[in-house]
Specification:
Helix content: 55-70%
Strand content: 5-15%
CATH topology of the largest domain: Arc Repressor Mutant, subunit A
Order of helices and strands: HHHEHHEEHH
Number of strands: 3
Oligomer: single chain
Distance between the termini: 25 Å
CATH class of the largest domain: Mainly Alpha
CATH architecture of the largest domain: Orthogonal Bundle
Largest sheet: 3 strands, antiparallel
Shape: globular
CATH superfamily of the largest domain: Winged helix-like DNA-binding domain superfamily/Winged helix DNA-binding domain
Strand order of the largest sheet: 1-3-2
């Protein structure tokens, strides 16, 4: 299969030249490797929420959600702010939102057996 060129992106060169940058990027992507963390991030994509509401939404114990949130916060994927007696979490920024959206679009793309960049528009509204 011939590779698809997506153009030059200068930040990607850092993955080749800077081991610490490559490790930090790998750590962020590894955080997305657990379905439980993806569900947490998907819920936070819809908007800020408390740990208890988040636990109910993703079907996990609050302590397990808190553990995952500590990891996600450490990696800079989520932020928490105190709101009275509870902490409300949200995605760190639009980059995390875009990363999730791109991951889902990629899965849709692969599942549909599409190849190349032109197929991206065809999967924009498709969600598995």
């Amino acid at each position: 299969m011939v590779g698809v060129s997506h153009g030059h992106h200068p930040h990607l060169d850092r993955l080749l030249d800077d081991d610490a940058y490559a490790r930090a990027t790998a750590d962020a992507l590894q955080a997305l490797s657990a379905p439980s963390r993806l569900r947490i991030l998907a819920r936070l994509h819809a908007g800020p929420t408390s740990v208890s509401d988040l636990a109910a939404a993703v079907g996990m114990e609050g302590s397990a959600v808190s553990h995952q949130l500590r990891l996600l916060r450490h990696l800079g994927l989520v932020v928490g702010r105190r709101d009275g007696r509870q902490v409300v979490y949200e995605l760190h920024d639009d980059h995390v939102s875009e990363l999730l959206e791109q991951a889902v679009a990629h899965v849709d793309h692969v599942r549909l057996g599409l190849a190349g960049r032109g197929a991206t528009a065809a999967t924009a509204g498709v969600r598995a």
